[in-house]
Amino acid sequence: MSRKTKGEGLTRRDFVKTVGLAGLAVAGTGVTGALAIPEKPAGPEKTAVLPRRQLGKTGVEVSILNLGGMFDTINNQLLLRQALNWGVTFWDTAESYGNGLSEEGYGRFFARNPGTRTKVFLVTKLVPKGGNFNGRFNQCLKRLQTDYVDLFYVHAIKDIDELTPEIKAWAAEMKKAGKIKYFGFSSHSNMADCLLGAARLDWIDAAMITYNFRVMNDPQMVEALNACAKAGIGVVAMKTQGGGPGMPTTTSKAELKVADRFLEKGFTDKQAKLKVVWENPYIASICSQMPNLTILSANVAAARDKTQLAQEDFDCLWQYAQETKSGYCAGCGRICQEAVGGAVPVNEVMRCLMYHRDYAEPELARQTFADLPKSVRERLAVVDYSRAEQVCPQGLAIAELMRQAQELLA
User: What is the model's pTM?
Assistant: First the structure.
């Protein structure tokens, strides 16, 4: 691993650590066949071509790359313009992102750039906790400076039963009023169960779930996606890089092997992890947090690139997933929660750790942790996790991770 990257004074290991593993674009490295950063289209408002797919039974074609708004959209107005210029016309946000500041940033963009709202397929979300969907949703629309959203999600459900008859009636009322066009949900936990449950309903248009190279081969997930395809439910993938709460902070040999393989093919391991998800035709789009132009341009380049991955590429990622599975929480929260008698939502705490370590978002991690009930946070240190560790399919060191969460996030 001591050879030099062509045209640079970095070793391959250094290059991987500074570019491939940081999720950055291949920028002037001299790597043969590297995906090019897209050029800015001519004209300030001309939207570039980006592949599109139909979002389930809605009949709407959306860009296969979805701008995740969990960043400072207010002070990144240029990035929003460039996303639109490069053809990323599917934008996602939520009431909880920055306590409404993400929505406000999108709203400022629409207000300052008349005519752009109709070019964007806009999504926002509300968590069920707190109720009062009417009042809260009206505030969302006010911040977004629009009178409708194209798609509304109930945010972060763990069970399809959270979509109550009252929520169904509310969705129908909002559709009739023209405030939402389509309705769905997002889920980080028990995703396959939620999708299978949704496929049995007749009023769900779309769902956004955690989906990546680590979970795509799970038989239940395969079954769930097939069921949604038959039911006409559009599926959007998130958390596609497959990082986790227990991932090592140093670069492992397995990770270097994966990164080296894809750099030689002309793209980074981060881009490969996007491309492997797009290989599934049942995934309409990937929602990705792209807080700077470097990451945005790398992801756009990956979306435009028509290179298909070989079976050996899938096998390489699957082997890496198996070798590092003990650091990744697969979101099967029902298993560990039942094992601790419902005392602690283990996978929710794991998500906080993931934000802190894999996303490098300590404030978001602390805020998400603080949103957990005080009684849950106080129980973290006294619960017996031995049974949960025994039944965890990933073999996570749950007790130690819960201890670290309390230490880092409390």
Answer: 0.87
